[in-house]
Design brief:
Layout (H helix, E strand, L loop, with lengths): L1 H21 L5 H25 L1
Helix pairs in contact: 1-2
Length: 53
């Protein structure tokens, strides 16, 4: 459970780093999809942990 708490913060951070480092070389649809997926995955983990409490 504690690992999932760290994932809530780390997933958007990893998405930010990938987009920041490689964003100019990737198509805009990939950059947008990656950013959205990272934040959405973080949201899903937060909601699942909320309902476990």
């Amino acid at each position: 459970m504690e690992n999932l708490i760290y994932a809530i913060v780390l997933l958007p951070l990893i998405g930010f780093l990938i987009n920041g480092l490689f964003g100019k070389n990737l198509p805009k649809i990939v950059v947008g999809s990656l950013a959205t997926a990272a934040v959405f995955a973080s949201f899903c983990i937060a909601v699942s942990l909320f309902f476990k409490i």
